[in-house]
Design brief:
The complex is a heterodimer. Chain A is built from 13 helices and 13 strands. Chain A is α+β, with helices and mostly antiparallel strands. Chain A folds into 2 domains: about 35-190 and about 245-340, no CATH class; about 195-240, Roll (Nuclear Transport Factor 2, Chain: A). In chain A, strands 5-4-6-7-11-12-3-13 form an 8-stranded mixed β-sheet, sandwiched between helices. A 3-stranded antiparallel β-sheet of chain A has the order 8-9-10. In chain A, about 45% of the residues are buried. Chain B is an alpha/beta fold. Chain B has 4 domains: about 5-190 and about 205-225, Rossmann fold (3-Layer(aba) Sandwich), CATH 3.40.50; about 230-355, 3-Layer(aba) Sandwich (Rossmann fold), CATH 3.40.50.920; about 390-570, 3-Layer(aba) Sandwich (Rossmann fold), CATH 3.40.50.970; about 575-640, Alpha-Beta Plaits (2-Layer Sandwich). A 7-stranded mixed β-sheet of chain B has the order 3-2-4-5-7-6-12. A 6-stranded parallel β-sheet of chain B has the order 16-15-17-18-20-19, sandwiched between helices. A 5-stranded mixed β-sheet of chain B has the order 9-11-10-13-14, with helices on both faces. In chain B, helix 14 crosses helix 18 (about 540-550) and helix 15 (about 440-445) runs parallel beside helix 16. The longest helix of chain B has 20 residues, at about 205-225. The radius of gyration of chain B is 28 Å and the shape is globular. The model of chain B has no long low-confidence stretch (mean pLDDT about 95). The chains are: A alpha+beta, B alpha/beta. The interface of A and B includes residues 15, 21 and 28 of A.
Chain lengths: ~350, ~650
């Protein structure tokens, strides 16, 4: 997010760097960064009003299994291709005029590098389909996109990016037409790996072939490329995760309008969390138009989903508590109480 | 006509010290001159190269100082009169040959002119090269006046031929770069043919017999120095204090004696021949004094040698041995203490007050206090900086960005040239080392072998084009041979810019203005099997990507950043027909959020913050119209407006 706002900050190979020493104590980069102090309660009240708090999955209306109706989308997208289907539906019905997504950079010397794209058509959405698992700097295009290129923009991002998007929206800045962000779809994310780390581990095996699919089935990290499936140890890849991911409490993109992730169960389906009213209306229209189909989320799977989110938060809170350097990563007192060590396990719904 | 070249003996002209030195060589009929530029010595060969066609002599800018002295030796072996000139750092480079050729001697007059830089005004050190004369056992002359600068050089050739031994003349910044009246002598026009006869052989072997011969030559030099008109004493016959001095010290001592009005108490013994010492001359005068104060800069060279002489005299039963004061005693001390920094009259005045017990007048103390109170306000710091439009700023901007994007705390290993300023804020304080010509490559070559010890930081060795030819080639050969890994960035601005735009092997012309083959940095590097890429640092994005990609490869590479020096560009072609302006409608000033990116982060001196208007502005007086800032401005507020002829 900071990238598009500031000439002092640039990114290369998904590494963000301060190129010059800015003398500002707390500039806009500070204000929008998801890893600076963030008033989550205020953000929840602002973007997800009149919903009751849920410290595990975040405020939401309902949880579903979802998939794209069209098989052609499902072949390209991750699991049920729900995000691709929603993006295509929005663009083709005029509800959206652009979608900010991450696509492969198509650099033969960097097959696993991704780049932000502003998709305006089904073809461009499909081109960006599929999970990347690295930290694509999608939001570096946000300001330019809403300023000059899009009036009804869909932003798809990882949980941290959705937090940054919301913080950017709150920043008092005339140059940001905030009402042009029409919808924010957040992805589920346990961690992401710095591209450079993934590069040295995985890219030598790809022999320059572009990846067709990246996935994390049980115990593995697999990359399909050039007609072959390359499998790596899940733990080896997880060990490369960004240190900041260990401090992140947000598994399901709690501030998004809609959150989408894996079901960890049915490969043809996604988990979909409906949060905001705006998200609910959009989904309703997409379902009515036959772009996506929904199924009730089984209670047993919901328990597993909640457990995963709960455990990530517990791990992150332990990491945060381990160092005074992390004290700025605040959560509200009520939320903190909820995750007290003596309150195990999570109360069943 | 250039006064240095006038054929009018007896005419008095105003000459810079370095011009006087060149004139001395011309009067001596020098045939071969070679140098590597370096302040404060550069003008000597500049003058001689202009004189070359008039006097039918040969002048060259050599690739480095050792080669310059070797070339001069080559000419002197064939019987010609030859001179090499250089700054103090250059003698370090040439010193291996200096000690060797001292042992063999040459039949033709061979003079080494060294211009020292006490205080390091334009140098990375203040090495006192007089020690080299003692180290190599060669005679040393030190001019105190501009007239002496000319006359000593002229005589140095005679002396060298008489002794068949290299003779060293040592100037300093305040002689070389100041001007004074010089009475011209007759120009030496001689018919000489260069030849080596079959019996002429020169080798420094066997060392000991050669050294014995050398000591005998030195003894003959000392004998000649006894009667030298360059040594003289002025003052009372039995002074309370005798100042022994040479070179610039003579000016400072004379002024200090005048200021304190102690001419009746203090005598000044000026030495022009400072190695070997004219011992009898010295002892004759010294024993008449109650005590001695040695004034010289920067090292206590005379003082040490004088002390040794007096000890010898005492051992031989001498009486009336005076006490010696100076830097060793702490009597002569500047702001950095004794033996450090440049001399000036105030330092001598204070030493004389101390030795003669002259109190500081109360009026003077009061004045000083008043003065200190008056100037007790914070003066804005003015750091050294790259010129507006300097391609080195673009290169450092690119290197900074590439290193930061790389994110491994890469090391920028610096070298000697304009780009040495990269050590300061103008180069974003990137350079981690700066020592001597070519060392960046050698340092990086060593660091490039440290992975086994855990060094993961990528390395960039930064050298200039002239420096590349001067001293980088052995380092590159070494790195290639030993498999070291780093990126050697050659900042090719098509000039030896820092010393005054002298041509070098890559520029395609010689010191005498003749066309020459232009040696290609990339072809030389490629011939070693090193991957080479060339880019223009003004294409910031491309250059940054290129360097970034180079840093990702753990191998030796050469990257040439080629963009002509802005000063050279404007000299050759004038300023470009365009203006660079800040569009006041687009520059948001403090509201931009860029936090004055152009003037604070980029830092070109032509970019200024207009506090009145609250936005950026361009100082058109110093702007070179390079337009790079237009690329840097995040708002696109800096614009290049091409000026059409209409």
């Amino acid at each position: 997010m900071c990238l598009g706002l500031c000439p002092y900050i640039e990114e290369k190979d998904e590494t963000v760097a301060f190129l010059s020493d800015c003398k500002a104590a707390q500039g806009r980069c500070w204000a929008v960064c998801p890893r600076t102090e963030t008033d989550l309660d205020s953000l929840r009240d602002l973007f997800l009003p009149s919903l009751s708090d849920d410290y595990v999955l975040g405020r939401h209306r309902s949880v579903w299994m979802a998939q794209a109706t069209q098989a052609s989308l499902r072949r390209r997208g991750q699991y049920g291709a729900t995000v691709s289907a929603l993006a295509v539906f929005g663009l083709e019905t005029g509800r959206l005029d652009a979608a900010l997504l991450s696509a492969w950079a198509k650099d033969p010397s960097r097959p696993l590098l991704s780049k932000p794209v502003l998709a305006r058509s089904r073809r461009e959405v499909l081109d960006a389909a599929g999970s990347k698992y690295t930290g694509c700097p999608t939001l570096s295009r946000l300001d330019q996109a809403v300023r000059d290129e899009a009036e009804r923009l869909l932003v798809v991002g990882r949980p941290c990016q959705i937090v940054a998007l919301r913080k950017r929206t709150l920043l008092e800045d005339d140059s940001f037409p905030r009402n042009r962000v029409a919808l924010a779809i957040g992805l589920f994310c346990m961690w992401s790996v710095p591209y450079k780390s993934l590069r040295s581990l995985v890219e030598p095996a790809l022999d320059g072939k572009p990846p067709e699919r990246v996935d994390i089935p049980k115990g593995q990290f697999v990359v399909a490329a050039g007609g072959r499936v390359h499998a790596f140890s899940h733990d080896a890849v997880r060990d490369l995760a960004r240190p900041a991911c260990r401090l992140c409490c947000d598994f399901t993109s709690e501030l998004a309008d809609l959150s989408v992730g894996s079901t960890e169960w049915k490969d043809e389906w996604n988990t979909l969390i409906i949060r905001s009213e705006r998200g609910a209306r959009f989904l309703e229209a997409a379902e009515a138009a036959g772009a996506v189909r929904l199924r009730p989320f089984p209670a047993e799977r919901l328990r597993i989903l909640r457990e995963a989110a709960y455990n990530k938060k517990r791990r992150a809170l332990r990491e945060i508590a381990a160092s005074p350097d992390n004290s700025y990563l605040k959560i509200s007192r009520r939320e903190r109480d909820f995750f007290r060590p003596d309150r195990l396990p999570e109360p069943a719904e | 006509m250039d006064p240095v070249l006038l054929d009018e003996p007896g005419r008095k002209v105003l000459l810079m010290g370095n011009e006087a030195i060149a004139r001395g060589a011309l009067e001596a009929g020098v045939e071969f001159c070679a140098a590597y530029p370096g302040s404060p010595s550069s003008e000597i060969l500049g003058v001689l190269s202009r004189a070359a066609s008039v006097f039918d002599l040969y002048a060259e800018w050599s690739a480095n100082e050792k080669v310059a002295l070797e070339g001069a030796c080559g000419a002197a072996f064939t019987g010609l009169r030859a001179m090499a000139s250089m700054k103090q750092n250059g003698v370090n480079v040439a010193s291996d040959l200096l000690t060797a050729v001292a042992l063999t001697g040459t039949p033709g007059g061979l003079v080494l002119v060294v211009c020292d830089d006490p205080g390091g005004i334009s140098s990375t050190n203040e090495v006192d090269t007089r020690h080299y004369a003692r180290l190599a056992d060669v005679p040393l002359l030190e001019p105190a006046t501009f007239q002496e600068a000319k006359d000593m050089v002229r005589w140095a050739f005679d002396l060298s031929e008489e002794l068949e031994l290299l003779c060293m003349v040592r100037s300093v910044t305040r002689i070389s770069h100041a001007r004074g009246v010089v009475e011209l002598g007759s120009l030496g026009r001689r018919e000489r043919r260069a030849r080596m006869t079959p019996d002429q052989r020169y080798a420094s072997l066997p060392p000991c017999p050669k050294r014995k011969e050398l000591k005998e030559k030195l003894a003959r030099a000392a004998a000649l120095f006894e009667a030298s008109p360059f040594n003289r004493y002025r003052g009372p016959s039995r002074p309370e204090l005798m100042v022994v001095t040479g070179g610039t010290g003579w000016w400072y001592a004379s002024e200090a004696v005048r200021i304190l009005k102690v001419e009746d108490r203090v005598g000044i013994l000026k030495l022009g021949t400072t190695w070997p010492l004219p011992e009898s001359f010295l002892l004759r005068h010294l024993t008449a004094a109650r005590s001695v104060l040695v004034v010289e800069e920067p090292d206590p060279f005379l003082e040490t040698n004088l002390g040794a002489l007096l000890l010898k005299a005492r051992a031989a039963g001498g009486r009336r041995i005076p006490a010696v004061f100076g830097k060793l005693s702490g009597t002569i001390r500047g702001p950095y203490g004794p033996g450090v920094g440049e001399m000036n009259p105030d330092i001598v005045v204070e030493a004389l007050r101390e030795r003669l017990a002259i109190p500081v007048p109360s009026s003077r103390q009061a004045f000083r206090k008043r003065l200190e109170a008056e100037i007790d306000f914070p003066l804005p710091g003015r750091e050294v900086a790259f010129c507006p439009g300097c391609p080195h700023r673009a290169s450092y901007w690119v290197m900074k960005n590439a290193l930061r994007l790389d994110g491994r705390d890469g090391l920028l290993i610096g070298d000697i040239g304009c780009y040495s300023l990269g050590f300061g804020r103008t180069g974003y304080s990137l350079s981690r080392t700066m020592h001597c010509m070519g060392s960046a490559v050698g340092f990086a070559s060593g660091m490039g072998k440290l992975e086994r010890f855990g060094l993961r930081q990528p390395r960039i060795a930064v050298v200039g084009d002239s420096t590349f030819f001067h001293a980088c080639l052995p380092g590159l050969v070494n790195a290639r041979y030993n498999g070291s890994a780093f990126v050697c960035v050659v900042l090719d601005n098509s000039a030896t810019a820092m010393t005054g735009f002298q041509p070098h092997p890559g520029t395609g012309r010689t010191a005498m203005g003749q066309p020459a083959p232009s040696l290609s940095v990339e072809a030389i590097a490629a011939s070693m099997g090193i991957p080479v890429r060339v880019t223009d640092p003004f294409r910031v994005r491309e250059a940054t990507d290129l360097l970034y990609e180079s840093l990702q490869k753990n191998e030796l590479q050469v990257l040439v950043f080629r963009h002509k020096c802005a000063l050279l560009q404007s000299r050759e072609e004038g300023l470009p027909a365009r203006r660079v302006v800040v569009n006041a409608d687009i520059c948001l000033g403090e509201r931009c959020g860029c936090n004055r990116f152009c003037s604070s982060a980029f830092g070109c001196p032509a970019l200024v913050w207009d506090a009145g208007k609250g936005r950026a502005s361009i100082d058109e007086v110093i702007c070179s119209r390079c337009g790079l800032c237009a690329e840097i401005c995040p708002a696109g507020a800096i614009q290049v407006i091409e000026e059409t002829e209409s």
